[in-house]
Amino acid sequence: MIIQGTAVGLPGEDVDTDVLYPGPFLNIQDPEVMRRHLFQGIAPELRDRLVGDTVLVVGANFGCGSSREHVVQAMRASGIRCVLGRSFARIFYRNCINLGLLAIAAPDAAAAADDGAAVAVDTSAGTIGVDDAVYATRMPSAAVLAIVEAGGLVARARQRAT
To answer: Looking at the whole model, is its pTM more than 0.85?
Structure first.
């Protein structure tokens, strides 16, 4: 799988899901409506920069805090195709897999991906291109990639059932 996009950075370490998608909006079920509230508690102006194939670049321990699937659903609805970071909170990372959003922990590539950089993730080659530089990194397992490619865990289960 190859995912290409433009880097958009969300600065900070230990960014928790409560600021990524605040509690008052948890009753919303439609991802298209959810996206209007993404980053509400930390950087609402960032939503205006998510205009299609975006690679969100984040710091360490991204997505800590509560288990809010709304964050990943709103990210996907906003055009985020991949989250590239130094590291992820376990629950956030698993929500990404379950909902079909690729999350890659690659500290060197994340550090190099300034706002506006062209990013290309090649899961087969195990590389992340950032502008003209290429970084080798450990990719998720084939099973995890199959779930992400299918669009999430439920979609993958449906594929396997047919």
So the answer is: yes
pLDDT tens digits along 57-69: 999 999 999 889 9
pLDDT higher than 90, residue 162:
no
Q: How many CB atoms lie within 10 A of CB 139?
A: 20
**Is the distance from CB of 119 to CB of 82 less than 8 angstroms?**
yes
- Strand order across the 127-130 sheet: 102-105, 80-85, 54-58, 2-10, 118-122, 127-130, 133-136
CA distance 54 to 84: 10
Whole-number Å distance between alpha carbons of 162 and 81 = 27
The amino acid occupying position 123 is T
Q: Which domains does the chain have, with CATH numbers?
A: 2-161 (3.20.19.10)
Phi, psi of 119, rounded to the nearest 5 degrees: -120, 135
Alpha carbon dihedral 80, 33, 73, 103, in 10-degree steps, equals 20
Give CA–CA dist 70/104, Å, rounded. 19
